[in-house]
């Protein structure tokens, strides 16, 4: 139980922990998968539930004192353009697609049938445009569904915890909204920006489409159209599937292998989720094509008006597939399964516990690890995870990079640390200022996009390798010449130059 005394006695820690739990600090202990036993999991749920108790007390305390739990609202975006957002839910054009024949025991509903795609699209708009529509809430409604999902993930769901979690979540983030203009018109074309490059973004485990709004909004404010998928594969805290406008919809809650009527081990279960996510990736790309082709979009969410004017305004040949954690694992896979070839992959902290990484992409990829992701040595199919990622990037038959962002932790690219900046350093040991960390992620994603568009390299992408192994300079000369302000932020593990050369030194396994 000593882990509790090291944590802040606040439930926000837990909130974050749950949001990032695919690869939570506990999962990162260098202990092979086959050695983990059920006792380990049991203990984890117990200390989680104790933290939750502490959190609820704290929430109550803040409520009585009238002070907000989250110190700061989400900041506005810093690029040259304003940012618009639209929620879209679109039934699959060919009808529901069942990827694995299994039902949820408690409801009898299919566990792995994709009926619709739900996504939020962030896009550039005029800086001065102000929408009359209310901003989207950061926690998708109804809050009680999300709360029930978190309680279930923590293994403490019952009639008593549900209202407590709902209250806690409402107190933490109920008032936070996403600072993008809902249903704003797409930015007018100007020379060189007739059609915008597009990115499809996939979230990590125990997350939703609203967990990366700052990162995606920042890209939109720099001239990208970014579509954030909400996966309904049982990996999110809670979501509602609406197959037609006006229908109440079907609730989707987190799923574990034991919740379905098919005997799948953990790996097979992850594969089923990945296959589900792959269908959603395809649907997202189809949706972007439909929008730019001017096809009417059968949206089942709140009506929006801006889409018809987007015809011809998306450059779908400049399609980047992106993701974080489990989502990065999915993006690597989708890069190989789409029929119309995407242009690039943006891979942030590819999963450690979400199954093997697909090595078969043939387009440029940029892999960015957070510091804690690289620093923690994790066994991954009999090799260190870091080495697997490095060798994967080296072998991609297109110019690709692998970098570590120093001073960051796994959730640095999500919104959570922006809402409670202290949170991240307390819980994960990240030390780079939250906003600076996010700015670096946005900058490198934008630099990579420039490269994909025209082959120009700038920023950290012009730098040669500094560290083939995490934390070890390739040479003293390189350490001398690498600019200090960059050394504070980055380690460069693979560049296009390395992809054509044998390794400079033997790899220690
Ligand atoms: C990658 O390609 C190889 C060779 O074609 C194939 O054997 C392997 O199954 C592929 N991996 C995945 C994950 O699809
Ligand atoms: C899409 O981008 C590519 C590369 O920059 C460019 O050659 C092409 O003309 C663009 N297409 C549209 C429709 O703007």
TrEMBL record:
Q: Which residues cross the membrane?
A: 45-66
State any GO BP term from the record.
lipid catabolic process
| UniProt keyword terms in alphabetical order | Hydrolase, Lipid degradation, Lipid metabolism, Membrane, Transmembrane, Transmembrane helix
How would you classify this enzyme at the top EC level? hydrolase
UniProt protein name: Putative phospholipase
Family statement drawn from the similarity comment of this UniProt entry:
Belongs to the serine esterase family.
Presence of the UniProt keyword Membrane in the record: yes
Q: Under the GO molecular function aspect, what terms does this record hold?
A: 1-alkyl-2-acetylglycerophosphocholine esterase activity
Q: Looking at the keywords, is Kinase present?
A: no
Organism of provenance: Aspergillus heteromorphus CBS 117.55
Q: What is its EC number?
A: 3.1.1.47
The record's catalysed reaction(s) read:
a 1-O-alkyl-2-acetyl-sn-glycero-3-phosphocholine + H2O = a 1-O-alkyl-sn-glycero-3-phosphocholine + acetate + H(+)
Locate the active site: 325, 349, 410
């Amino acid at each position: 139980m000593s882990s509790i005394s090291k944590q802040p006695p606040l439930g926000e820690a837990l909130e974050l922990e749950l949001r990032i739990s695919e690869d939570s600090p506990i999962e990162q202990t260098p202990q092979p998968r086959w050695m983990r036993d059920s006792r380990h999991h049991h203990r984890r749920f117990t200390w989680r539930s104790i933290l939750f108790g502490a959190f609820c007390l704290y929430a109550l305390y803040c409520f009585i004192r009238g002070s907000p739990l989250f110190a700061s609202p989400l900041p506005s975006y810093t690029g040259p353009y304003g940012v618009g957002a639209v929620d879209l839910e679109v039934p699959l054009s060919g009808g529901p697609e069942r990827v694995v024949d299994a039902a949820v025991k408690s409801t009898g509903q299919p566990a792995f049938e994709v009926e619709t795609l739900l996504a939020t699209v962030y896009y550039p708009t005029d800086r001065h445009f102000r929408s009359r529509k209310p901003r989207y809430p950061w926690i998708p409604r109804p809050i009680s569904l999300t709360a029930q999902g978190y309680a279930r993930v923590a293994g403490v769901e019952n009639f008593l915890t549900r209202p407590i979690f709902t209250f806690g979540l409402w107190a933490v983030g109920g008032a936070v909204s996403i600072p993008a203009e809902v249903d704003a018109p797409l930015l007018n074309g100007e020379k060189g920006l007739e059609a915008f490059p597009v990115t499809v973004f996939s979230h990590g485990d125990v997350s939703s489409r609203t967990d990366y709004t700052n990162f995606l909004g920042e890209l939109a404010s720099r001239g990208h159209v970014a579509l954030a998928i909400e996966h309904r594969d049982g990996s999110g805290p809670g979501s509602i599937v609406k197959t037609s406008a006006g229908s109440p919809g079907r609730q989707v809650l987190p799923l574990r292998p034991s919740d379905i009527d098919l005997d799948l081990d953990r790996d097979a279960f992850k594969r089923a989720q990945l296959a589900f996510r792959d269908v959603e990736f395809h649907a997202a790309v189809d949706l972007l094509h439909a929008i730019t082709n001017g096809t009417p979009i059968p949206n089942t969410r709140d009506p929006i008006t801006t889409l018809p004017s987007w015809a011809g305004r998306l450059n779908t040949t400049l399609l980047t597939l992106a993701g974080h954690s489990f989502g990065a694992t999915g993006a690597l896979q989708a890069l190989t399964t789409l029929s119309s070839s995407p242009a690039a992959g943006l891979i942030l902290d590819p999963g450690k516990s979400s199954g093997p990484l697909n090595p078969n992409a043939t387009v440029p990829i940029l892999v960015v690890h957070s510091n804690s992701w690289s620093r923690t040595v994790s066994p991954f199919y009999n090799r260190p995870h870091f080495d697997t990622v490095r060798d994967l990037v080296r072998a991609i038959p297109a110019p690709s990079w692998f970098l570590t962002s120093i001073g960051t932790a796994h959730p640095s690219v999500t919104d959570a640390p922006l809402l409670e900046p202290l949170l991240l350093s307390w819980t994960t040991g990240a030390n780079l200022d939250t906003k600076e960390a996010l700015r670096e992620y946005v900058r490198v994603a934008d630099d990579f996009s420039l490269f994909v568009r025209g082959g120009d390299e700038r920023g950290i992408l012009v730098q040669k390798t500094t560290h083939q192994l995490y934390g070890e300079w390739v040479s003293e000369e390189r350490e001398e010449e690498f600019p200090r302000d960059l050394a504070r932020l980055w380690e460069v593990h693979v560049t296009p130059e390395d992809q054509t050369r044998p390794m400079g030194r033997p790899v220690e396994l």
